[in-house]
Automatic annotation (TrEMBL):
Name this polypeptide is given: ROK family transcriptional regulator
InterPro entries given in the database record: ATPase_NBD, ROK, ROK_cs, WH-like_DNA-bd_sf, WH_DNA-bd_sf
PANTHER family assigned to the protein according to its UniProt record, in alphabetical order: BIFUNCTIONAL UDP-N-ACETYLGLUCOSAMINE 2-EPIMERASE_N-ACETYLMANNOSAMINE KINASE (PTHR18964:SF149), ROK (REPRESSOR, ORF, KINASE) FAMILY (PTHR18964)
Species this protein is from: Kitasatospora aburaviensis
Family: Belongs to the ROK (NagC/XylR) family.
Domain of life: Bacteria
Pfam families (UniProt xref): HTH_24, ROK
Amino acid sequence: MFPNHAQPLVTAPAETSVLALLLTEGPLSRVELARRTGLSSTAVTKAARPLIDDGYLHELPPERTAPGAGRPVNPLAVTVDREFFVGVKISAEALFGTVCDLRAGMRATADLRLGEDRGPEAVCALVGELVERLLDADPTFRGRTRHLGIAVSGDVDRAAGRVRYSVLPGWRDVPLAGAVARSTGLSVTVENDVKALTAAEHWFGEGIGTEYFALVTIGAGIGSGLVVNGQLIAGAYGVAGEMGHISIDPAGPVCHCGQTGCVEAIASSDAILAAVRTATGDADLDFDGAVQLARGGDPAARDAFARAGRAIGTGIATLVNLLGPERVVVTGEGLDTYDLFGVHIREAYAAHCFKAAAKSPLTLRPLPWEEWARGAAVLGIQALFP
Ligand SMILES: [Zn+2]
């Protein structure tokens, strides 16, 4: 997070657990908080006090738990508009931005097309412009916003605030967080976009309350984010979760990463298109054309989607066999063609899962672009924690 002096809101373990539970699960009584955190009721009350004083928590009106159940309880709740968080997702064509409240509710959204120049300096300037526009969307935003999260695809060093590699032209080892922190005055966290989305789903979506959780994106790229012991993991080299580059077919196509037979080399939308072009001999075909052919029953096109589905299902099964997540969320623009390969994903998944691993359900979650920006804003919310 940049600047480095930005302080977390909570540091003591008791405050951290109380705030995290209330953020992710909504209002809870002190008794319930004590039960869930393993703290004593006195410790819960002590932990909540400074957060109430700072306006982050408030007491709801008393409610009786049951007739004759004794003294009514006042559940504690997060005051969601105490602080706001800006999130920006940088995609190949545009920037998508949002302002979220403390429980990741989207309060405003905006987007900006990238210009001809997509180098780091030009994109940084546009990020600053989008942030300004978002903060102007409501008079309460500017005074209550300290954190900005930026999500970008590629190899991101979150701790150093640098984008080591992205498909955008000229993006090699870009000190993005520092540059945007200087131009916006906000503290900035930069993260890989799939990891940011995974963090958002873990705290505020399908993954709430899970210790082991995985999110898989399909479409132009195949990616995944992993949560282990309740923590999003990056791995020692920042590449944990590169499901797209599990090699599943030694005789398969060569991947842009240099390996052979990666899931992404078979199942990305470009890979599917390349397979359909080769099979039909039509070098001018675009992806929509390939989809139309497959939906019209063309055997070669249907086969390319089937092969992609089997590759994705095998990749997810490998992930599940290694990690044993409670559930797996499948998302990304590739869901638009789920009718063409969904059955193959599920068949290959069931066939390759080891025993009880197959209990882990696949949940399909179509997420519009704004949700990726929300993922970026959740990086800011998580920056309140040590
Ligand atoms: Zn690869």
